[in-house]
Amino acid sequence: MTELDPVIHAQARLRVVATLSTLNDGDRIAFPRLQDLLAMTPGNLSVHLRKLEDAGYVEVTKTHRGRTPATLIRLSRRGRLAFEEYTEAIRTLLDPTQLDPTPSKEQQ
Questions:
Q1: What residues have CB less than 8 Å from 72, skipping those under 6 apart?
Q2: What CATH number does the domain containing 24 carry?
Q3: Which of 17, 44, 85, 108 is the most exposed place for a label (fewest CB within 10 A)?
Q4: pTM for the structure as a whole
């Protein structure tokens, strides 16, 4: 049985990682934009980002745009790899025949 990454598997974190995975490698998204895309409250998004950051899956950068504080988020290389492994595990669960390309006697 394929193991699903429990850090990513929580619905809200899966939505965060899936959204961040659509960015080009190295691109960042502003916290308010991510919050809008996911329709999450700031507190809820912060909690899930912290969990993903603790796992090394996202990088959070706090900076300033002029005098205004800005929080930028991106998927780390480790996070991108974890998401690829997670999606492969889901595919395997949905279609176990992907594990062994040779058909069994029952499948022939």
A1: 28, 29, 30, 31, 60, 61, 63
A2: 1.10.10.10
A3: 108
A4: 0.84
